[in-house]
Design brief:
Elements lengths: L1 E8 L4 E9 L5 E10 L4 H18 L7 E2 L3 H9 L11
Parallel strand pairs: 1-4
Antiparallel strand pairs: 1-2, 2-3
Helix pairs in contact: 1-2
Length: about 90
C-alpha cells in the first residue's frame, strides 16, 4: 500500500509531499519526502504528490500496490486531462 499526502506553503511559495510504502500487513517498507518550488495550488500539489508516489513505487519495483489518497478530485482531474501541468519535468 502506498500512502501519499501533500501540503502547500503559501508564504514560502512551495509545496511538500510525503510518501510511505507498506506491505500487505501494514509494515513499513520505504518512505520519501520532497519539496517543489512555485506550487501553491492544493489540487495541483496533490496531483504532483500522487504522480511522485507512483514513480517512487516503480523505482523500488513495487508494481502491485494500492494507492491510498485522501483527495479524489486531483486524481480525477489529472486522469481526465483537466490539470494542465507538465509533470514530466518534476521527476
Amino acid at each position: 500500500m502506498v500512502n501519499v499526502d501533500a501540503a502547500v506553503f503559501q508564504k514560502d511559495n512551495r509545496m511538500g509531499m510525503g510518501i510511505v510504502i507498506r506491505d500487505h500487513k501494514g509494515d513499513f517498507l520505504a518512505a520519501c519526502r520532497q519539496g517543489v518550488d512555485k506550487i501553491t495550488n492544493p489540487e495541483v500539489a496533490e496531483a504532483i504528490a500522487f504522480r511522485r508516489a507512483v514513480l517512487f513505487a516503480s523505482e523500488l519495483q513495487y508494481h502491485q500496490t494500492s494507492k491510498q489518497h485522501h483527495v479524489a478530485s486531483p486524481c480525477n482531474r489529472a486522469c481526465s486531462g483537466l490539470v494542465a501541468l507538465s509533470l514530466a519535468s518534476l521527476s
